């Protein structure tokens, strides 16, 4: 197999090794980090991760829904595959 | 009645009797490389070109647009969607 | 006699019933607040289904939304109930 072909969906992830990817997770979380390793379950090791958590608060007076995001930095992270919704590799010019 | 008393009919794969060329596998063959809508169980929709998919319904999409409640929220060059989140894959006009 | 089991009840496999629904309208109730009605064109051993002329119903706090889809491959893993020959929630008889 040549390096740049995507025949299986997981090839897309394989091509993103050592690159910074975006991961949408269950529970309104999003990660951005460098993909060090993954397996067939989409368990992953990410490095230099920025985690974004989105929460909705309801204003007690106006009942308006307020979207709040909080971010934190994690140097190294194991991601359990069953929490993963979507993985997006960096834009490649190919 | 006939199928209940005939052991051979009980043993054959159920879907083998269709012969219309419209099993899930046939559909996937026909829709590869075409624009599709992928709807997740969370009601989020992804529109893009179906690059490939596997037996878990893991999906690789190109030129992906993310719609939440019908509003475009995000775009991704490539996207890997983990199959357990997928509700359906639909063909689209245009 | 021909059966390996000495079960006197005529056995029909659940999926044989689904097989008999091919070409007919079918109402699908998903886990969670979603329902679909469509014409069943095919399915596989996981009960992933090909449906045509689909109406999708979604129930939420904001109300019911209805959407038309030409042809879909429905993932079987979140299917809860199948109602053969039904036109779905709008045509079901309340009791």
Overview of this protein structure:
The complex is a heterotrimer of chains A (94), B (94) and C (95). With 94 residues, chain A is mostly beta strands. Helices cover 6% and strands 54% of the residues of chain A. Chain A has a 5-stranded antiparallel beta sheet with strand order 4-3-2-1-5, with no helix packed on it. In chain A, a hairpin with a 3-residue loop joins strand 1 and strand 2. Chain A is elongated and about 55 Å long. The model of chain A has no long low-confidence stretch (mean pLDDT 88). Chain B is built from 3 helices and 5 strands. Chain B has 94 residues and is of the alpha+beta class. In chain B, a hairpin with a 4-residue loop joins strand 1 (35-40) and strand 2. Chain B has a domain at 35-94: SH3 type barrels, CATH 2.30.30.100. In chain B, 18% of the residues lie in helices and 45% in strands. Chain B is globular. Chain B has a 5-stranded antiparallel beta sheet with strand order 4-3-2-1-5, with no helix packed on it. Chain C is mainly β and 95 residues long. Helix content of chain C is 7%, strand content 48%. Chain C has 1 helix and 5 strands. A 5-stranded antiparallel beta sheet of chain C has the order 4-3-2-1-5, with no helix packed on it. In chain C, strand 3 (49-60) and strand 4 form a beta hairpin. The longest helix of chain C has 7 residues, at 14-20. The N and C termini of chain C lie far apart (43 Å). The model of chain C has no long low-confidence stretch (mean pLDDT 87). Chains in contact: A-B, B-C. Chain B binds chain C through residues 1, 3-7, 10, 13-15, 17-18, 20, 22-28, 31, 41, 43, 57, 83-84, 86-91, 93, and chain C through 2-4, 10-13, 15-16, 18-19, 22, 30, 32, 34, 41-45, 48-50, 58, 69-75, 77-78. Strand 5 of chain B pairs antiparallel with strand 4 (63-74) of chain C. Chain C: Its main location: nucleus. Chain C: GO terms for molecular function: RNA binding. Chain C: LSm subunits form a heteromer with a doughnut shape. Chain C: Plays a role in U6 snRNP assembly and function. Binds to the 3' end of U6 snRNA. Chain C: Belongs to the snRNP Sm proteins family.
Task: Summarize this structure as a short list of keywords or feature phrases.
heterotrimer; B: 94 residues; alpha+beta; SH3 type barrels; five-stranded antiparallel beta sheet; 5 strands; 18% helix; 45% strand; disordered N terminus; C: 95 residues; mainly beta; 48% strand; RNA-binding (chain B); mRNA processing (chain B); Sm-like protein LSM36B (chain B); RNA binding (chain B)
């Amino acid at each position: 197999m040549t390096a740049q072909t995507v025949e299986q969906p997981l090839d897309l992830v394989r091509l993103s090794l050592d690159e910074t990817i975006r991961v949408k997770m269950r529970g309104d979380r999003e990660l951005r980090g460098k993909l060090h390793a993954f397996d067939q379950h989409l368990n992953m090791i990410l490095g230099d991760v920025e985690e974004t958590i989105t929460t909705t608060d309801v204003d007690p007076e106006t009942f308006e829904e307020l979207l709040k995001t909080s971010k934190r930095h994690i140097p190294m992270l194991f991601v359990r595959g069953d929490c993963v919704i979507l993985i997006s590799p960096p834009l490649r010019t190919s | 009645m006939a199928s209940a008393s005939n052991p051979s009919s009980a043993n054959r794969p159920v879907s083998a009797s269709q012969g219309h060329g419209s099993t899930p596998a046939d559909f996937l063959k026909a829709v590869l490389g075409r624009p599709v809508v992928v709807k997740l169980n969370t009601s989020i929709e992804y529109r893009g070109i179906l690059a490939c998919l596997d037996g878990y319904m893991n999906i690789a999409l190109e030129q992906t647009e993310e719609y939440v409640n019908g509003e475009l929220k995000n775009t991704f060059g490539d996207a890997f969607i983990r199959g357990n989140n997928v509700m359906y894959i639909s063909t689209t006009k245009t | 006699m021909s059966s390996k089991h000495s079960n006197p009840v005529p056995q029909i496999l659940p999926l044989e019933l689904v097989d008999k629904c091919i070409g007919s309208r079918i109402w699908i109730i998903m886990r969670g607040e979603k329902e679909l009605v469509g014409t069943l064109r095919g399915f596989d051993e996981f009960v992933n289904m090909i449906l045509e002329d689909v109406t999708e119903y979604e129930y939420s706090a904001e109300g019911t939304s209805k959407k038309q889809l030409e042809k879909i491959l429905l993932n079987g893993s979140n299917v809860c109930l199948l109602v053969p020959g039904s036109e779905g929630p709008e045509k079901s008889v309340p009791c």
